[in-house]
Amino acid sequence: MRISPPNPFLVPPTWNCMYHSIYTLSLLLGLNTLLATGNASAQLIARAAESNSGCKPYYYGPVNTQLSSFPTIWEPATILHGDTNAESKWDSIKANVPKIPPKGTPNGDFSGLNYSDADDDCWWTYSKCVDPRLEGLPSDVADIPEPHTLAYSFDDGPNCSHNAFYDYLVAQGQKATMFYVGSNVMDWPLEAQRAVTDGHEICVHTWSHRYMTGLSSRDVFAELYYTIKLVTDITPTCWRPPFGDVDDRVRAIANGLGLRTVLWKYDSNDWRVDDGDVSRSAVDANYERLLNESANGSFDTVGAILLAHELNNFTMSEAVKYYERLRSTFKNLVPIQVALNNTHPYVEDRPSLGDFHDYTTGRSASVPSDPGTGSDSGESTSPYSPSSVLGPGSEPQSASGSQSTVVSGFLPPSVTDQPAGQMPSSSRARRIGGVVVGGIGWWAMAIGILNAVV
Ligand SMILES: [Zn+2]
Question: Which prosthetic group or cofactor does it need (predicted)?
């Protein structure tokens, strides 16, 4: 097995300044007025924040007042000191976690690792194994049962400049599954809320985007426990391991948290372009291959899951570039939970997109309401009430006094509150793969590169 060291890369500023007219309108109307208008507000607010900040971090009260209840953004997660609810949850899970030692490092350096050819741990990184050896664990979702169907998914969001891409999906009436990184959600909360408002499915993509098999079991738990509920008011029941790096130990922890492991079948490899490891034409070729296989009947009996990213301008542009051809080649282009006929994709009783039949015949349930209103399920409370600061399984987080901290209402974003420079320094500087980046408006997200020759 040959392993390359991780290569952090920068995310370029993209599609900024496209919404100055909307932003100007927002200022004229006043953001508080916009916030009072209900379900459509999240899109406008997200755009206003993007235009105003130029993709810079912004101060957002409901998140910033709760930072002490979460791990440091972009740092590998650990159970917070004194978080008795997290400890209790971990205690309830750990007995079912197999005694498999961590593999390599959290940055994906597996050099020197001795791993059996028998693949006893069902390590996807090694063998693309998706059927756990450990009894009681469900198989990973790597295919979907519906023929002529492509499950449409995007990793690594929310992206501070994704509004143009999300606008495009809205214009097409297209929903997708978004695998969100917790640290990105905390950095770009309004953008995350927009995804919920637009009706996309949300799944977990860990807190800090590390190689999960390289972490201790306790830290794997923390990477999955500290969820995006605070911002999105939903608790997903699905997750995708960064780099697909999962084995039975990690699966058991995710399963204990009620998270189904989701992988993919077709990787566009779009994420590898910026590091120079893959050319743009190679990504085009990957999309073309998928289209050709569809045209040649490869999906006559079973569907596929496409892995793409909302990581940067190129990856989102590629998605737009190939969208119409994918939609015309595949009979159905649907979110993953829809493809699986899962009509209860969240812990909460939130409206779903319906089952496969409902979605593809246009009889889906209604799109979830704006997470800032919390009005769709009959709940009158703000999503930022203490009861919403929950981990998976609706365990309240009491650490750092979050239970006693009342955060009232849907507060306006930082554009009128407080300059980004006044945010706590811990959330402005991020250590990613040994590189510290911070505070410059747009910044790095590290992804290690794994070249495994098995
Ligand atoms: Zn990822």
Answer: Co(2+)
Q: Per the domain annotation, does 441 fall within a domain?
A: no
Q: How far is the CA of 26 from the centre of ligand 1 (A)?
A: 33
Whether 302 maps to a domain, the answer reads: yes
The count of structural domains within the chain is: 1
- Rounded to whole angstroms, the Cα distance separating 195 from 218 reads 30
Catalytic site positions: 155, 309
Q: Are 15 and 163 in contact (CB under 8 A)?
A: yes
User: How far apart are the CA of 54 and the centre of ligand 1, in A?
Assistant: 24
- 446 domain residue, yes or no: no
Q: Which domain holds residue 235?
A: 59-414
Of the candidates 447, 133, 119, the one whose C-alpha atom is nearest the C-alpha of residue 274 is 447
Cα 8 to averaged position of ligand 1 atoms, centre (Å): 13
Q: Answer yes or no: is 15 within a domain.
A: no
> What's the gap in Å between 247 CA and the centre of ligand 1?
17
What is the Å distance from ligand 1's center to 209 Cα? 6
Q: Among residues 328, 342, 356, 315, which one has the least CA distance to residue 447? A: 315
The per-residue pLDDT string of the chain (454 residues; one tens digit each, 9 = 90 and over) reads 333 333 222 222 222 222 222 222 222 222 333 333 334 455 655 555 555 555 777 888 889 999 999 999 999 999 999 999 999 999 999 999 999 999 999 999 999 999 999 999 999 999 999 999 999 999 999 999 999 999 999 999 999 989 999 999 999 999 999 999 999 999 999 999 999 999 999 999 999 999 999 999 999 999 999 978 888 888 999 999 999 999 999 999 999 999 999 999 898 889 888 877 888 999 999 999 999 999 999 999 999 999 999 989 999 999 999 999 999 999 999 999 999 999 999 998 877 888 898 889 886 654 444 444 333 333 322 222 222 222 222 222 222 222 222 222 222 222 222 222 222 223 333 322 222 222 222 223 332 223 332 2
Q: At what angle do helices 217-225 and 84-94 cross, to 10 degrees?
A: 120
* CB-CB contact of 339 with 303 (8 Å): yes
